[in-house]
C-alpha cells in the first residue's frame, strides 16, 4: 500500500465543533494508519485565550492516529495565513496532504476516497485538488460514477499535492491587469457570481481568505477539482463564531452512510454539463439572496 497522505487539521476556539470533527475522523477506516498534524491558532484578544486553551487541552488527549503533531501559535495568524503557512510546512516533508478545518464531520470512508484519488491523479496536470465534500445536487441522485469534476475548488475537506501547492501566487500579483480585463472578469463570474467580488475584497483587505486566491489560481490555469459524488464531508460550522460560511444553508448535504472503501476513477475526465449547471446555481445571485434572507428571518437556526 502506498504511504497515506498526512491529515492537516486547523483549529481555533470552538471546542464542541473540534471534538465532533476529531471523533468523526477517528472513526475513519484509515485513521490509525494516518499521521495527523494539528495547527492551533492563537487568540485575537486576551479575553479569548480561555476558549483556545480549552481546545488545546483537548488536542493533547487525542489518540487513534499513527503519529500526532501539534503546533500552537502564540499570536493570532488568522485563518488564511494559518492554512497557507501550515500546509506549506507539512508539504516540506510530504508530497501530498489532506486538509480539514475544525467544523467538518467526515464519513468513515473519507480517507479512503481522498487517498485513492490523490494517488490516481498525482500525475494529472489538469487536476488541482480533490474534494471529499459535495453539495447536494439533484443530478447526483442518479449518477453512477464515484466522482465528477468541477471548476471551483472546495475548502471543505480537500487534498492536493506539493507540486500544485507551491505554484500558487498568494499575492495575486497580476490582479491589476485582471481587474480591467472584463472578459476574464466575466469568465470568473460564470464560475460563481461571488468570485470577482470576493477576490476584490481580498485584495483590498476587507476579507481574509486563502480559498478565493486558491480558486483564482485554478481559474487562471483552467484546472479542475475532482469531487466525491456522495459527500464524505458535512459542514457544521454555521454558528456565529464560524470564521466563514456562518448560516449558509447551501452547504448542507447528505453524508455518505455506505461502507464502500474502493472507488473507481478515470484518466479521461469529462465534464457533466448538467452537474456543472446545478453546481453554479448554488452560487448564483438569486441563491445568495435567498441564503441571506433565510439567515435574517431565522437567526436562531444557525
UniProtKB/TrEMBL annotation:
InterPro entries: Glyco_trans_2-like, Nucleotide-diphossugar_trans. The keyword Membrane does not apply. It comes from the Bacteria. One of its GO terms (molecular function) is transferase activity. Residues 7-112 form the Glycosyltransferase 2-like domain. Keywords: Transferase. This is Glycosyl transferase family 2. It comes from Arenibacter palladensis. The lineage of its organism: Bacteria, Pseudomonadati, Bacteroidota, Flavobacteriia, Flavobacteriales.
Amino acid at each position: 500500500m502506498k504511504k497515506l497522505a498526512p491529515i492537516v487539521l486547523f483549529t481555533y476556539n470552538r471546542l464542541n465543533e473540534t471534538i465532533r470533527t476529531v471523533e468523526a475522523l477517528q472513526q475513519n477506516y484509515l485513521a490509525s494508519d494516518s499521521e495527523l498534524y494539528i495547527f492551533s491558532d492563537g487568540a485575537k484578544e486576551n479575553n479569548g485565550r480561555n476558549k483556545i486553551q480549552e481546545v488545546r487541552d483537548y488536542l493533547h488527549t487525542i489518540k487513534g492516529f499513527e503519529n500526532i503533531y501539534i503546533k500552537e501559535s502564540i499570536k493570532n495568524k488568522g485563518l488564511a495565513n494559518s492554512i497557507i503557512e501550515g500546509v506549506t510546512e507539512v508539504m516540506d516533508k510530504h508530497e501530498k496532504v489532506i486538509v480539514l478545518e475544525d467544523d467538518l464531520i467526515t464519513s468513515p470512508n473519507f480517507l479512503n476516497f481522498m487517498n485513492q484519488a490523490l494517488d490516481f491523479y498525482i500525475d494529472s496536470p489538469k487536476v488541482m485538488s480533490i474534494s471529499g465534500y459535495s453539495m447536494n445536487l439533484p443530478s447526483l441522485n442518479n449518477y453512477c460514477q464515484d466522482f465528477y469534476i468541477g471548476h471551483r475548488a472546495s475548502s471543505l475537506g480537500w487534498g492536493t499535492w506539493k507540486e500544485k501547492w507551491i505554484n500558487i501566487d498568494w499575492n495575486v500579483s497580476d490582479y491589476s491587469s485582471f481587474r480591467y480585463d472584463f472578459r476574464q472578469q466575466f469568465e470568473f463570474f460564470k464560475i460563481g457570481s461571488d468570485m470577482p467580488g470576493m477576490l476584490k475584497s481580498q485584495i483590498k483587505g476587507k476579507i481574509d481568505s486563502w480559498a478565493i486566491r486558491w480558486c483564482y489560481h485554478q481559474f487562471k490555469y483552467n484546472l479542475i477539482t475532482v469531487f466525491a459524488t456522495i459527500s464524505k464531508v458535512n459542514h457544521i460550522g454555521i454558528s456565529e463564531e464560524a470564521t466563514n460560511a456562518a448560516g449558509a444553508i447551501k452547504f448542507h448535504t447528505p453524508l455518505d452512510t455506505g461502507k464502500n472503501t474502493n472507488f473507481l476513477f478515470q484518466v479521461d475526465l469529462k465534464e457533466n454539463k448538467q452537474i456543472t449547471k446545478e453546481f453554479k446555481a448554488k452560487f448564483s445571485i438569486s441563491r445568495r439572496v435567498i441564503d441571506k434572507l433565510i439567515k435574517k428571518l431565522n437567526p436562531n437556526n444557525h
